[in-house]
Amino acid sequence: MTERAPHATLGLSADEVLTTTQDYPRMITTFKQRERREGIVLKQFSIPTPAEDPAGIVRLFEENISDRTRLILMSHMVFLTGQILPVRDVVAMARKRGIPVIVDGAHAFAHFEFQLADLDCDYYASSLHKWLFAPHGTGLLYVRRDKIAGLWPLMAAPETEDDDIRKFEEIGTHPAANALAVAEALTFHEGIGAHRKQERLIALRDYWADRLLENDRVRLHTSLKPGFACGIANVELEGVDTKSLAEHLWKQHRILVVAITHDQFEGLRVSPSVYTTYQELDRFCDAMEDVLANGLPS
């Protein structure tokens, strides 16, 4: 989709999109292509890891706004670490300056408890195959009502749908199975309950994190304080190569984690889900403690 409202046109040379260095690569690639195609500027800045000062995050966004800033992109939950960012406060700050905010909610939706209306954002997008457990290729797009008419859908829609959110669904013949499966996934999610799901995911995270943190060589790049993260956490073993560690865990123990290497930090992204058992987390901790004691096998 592209925005066409005169007060927020993006596409003029040197117009800026502001985001962090920890946003999702696909989103970064999208705006990098617009840099090459249209001459806009993608401006990125660093945030602390972990970040436990919401006002500080808002201040970083504000300090990096220029008179060329036309759009802010921010993650609701950072995919690298599970960090939850203060969306509502950033949106409020940006709105005073007439700057719309796109929120990437891929890892937030159905992961922890929140109300979309409470964020008061202009745009919110999420894939549904992650924490809602819907099929790949399903997603959610929210557009603030007064912003709908100002967006062109990438798949052409008739003029009669200019003010209709359904214009973003003009993709030709719709596969019925995916939509029906989304309904089943929502039923499953609501059956568990958003709050109970959140509490379960936090309990699983704390179970393995608290145990591993007893070792001095373990570094957690995710806050364990309430409200700053949920089920995802990023952990590093000092002196152990992160990519090699992830390969070892999979090949030797069939434990699936994601190796994260970033300019600011590196570590394993660990993401237990509601069906993960404490016995499985014990296996993970046993394997990690073995590497701490004996190193990776040669």
- Number of distinct helices: 8
Q: Round the Cα radius of gyration to an integer and report it.
A: 21 Å
Number of domains: 2
Percent in strands: 15-25%
Overall geometric form: globular
CATH architecture verdict of the largest domain: 3-Layer(aba) Sandwich
Content-based structural category: alpha/beta
Largest sheet: 6 strands, mixed
What is the CATH T-level topology of the largest domain?
Aspartate Aminotransferase, domain 2
CATH class of the largest domain: Alpha Beta
Which residue ranges are poorly predicted, with pLDDT under 50 across at least 5 consecutive positions?
4-8
Describe the fold and architecture.
It is a single chain. Helix content is 34%, strand content 17%. It has 298 residues and is an alpha/beta fold. It has two domains: 180 residues, 3-Layer(aba) Sandwich (Aspartate Aminotransferase, domain 2), CATH 3.40.640; 101 residues, Aspartate Aminotransferase, domain 1 (Alpha-Beta Complex). Strands 3-2-4-5-6-7 form a six-stranded mixed beta sheet, with helices on both faces. Strands 9-10-12-11 form a four-stranded antiparallel beta sheet, with helices on one face. The longest helix has 19 residues.
Record keyword descriptors for this entry:
298 residues, 2 domains, globular, 12 strands, Aspartate Aminotransferase, domain 1
What is the topological layout?
Elements: E1 2-3, E2 16-20, H1 25-38, E3 41-45, H2 54-63, E4 69-75, H3 87-95, E5 101-104, H4 116-119, E6 123-127, E7 139-143, E8 151-152, H5 176-192, H6 194-212, E9 218-220, E10 233-237, H7 242-253, E11 258-261, E12 266-270, H8 278-294
Parallel strand pairs: 2-3, 2-4, 4-5, 5-6
Antiparallel strand pairs: 1-8, 6-7, 9-10, 10-12, 11-12
Helix pairs in contact: 2-3, 6-8
